[in-house]
Amino acid sequence: MMTNTTIPLVYGLLIGKSAEDYNLFFEKVLEQDNFQPESIMTDFKTGTIKSVTDMLPNILHKGCLFHFSQAVWRQVQSKGLTTKYNEDDFFRLNIKQLISLAFAFH
Hints:
By secondary structure, the protein is mainly α. The chain is built from five helices and two strands.
């Protein structure tokens, strides 16, 4: 038995991003014989989170660090803080520390 190991088993390319789109995807995945994952890792889309909560309530849901980092960076950009990030070492460190909080409750 492996622990603390992630093995990608299923990828999904969906047409939309709604919870209904993800529900259809998860229904197809769950139809497969003996498919009983202990955990699932996804991005942070609202539709994904709702669908996993509804369709897979007893499975540990983890967010992808790459997508989390991307979401934080998009917020930095949307708030007009890119220059501050590039020029202010303390601010940049704070953003990196924010991202590292993803590991604090693992």
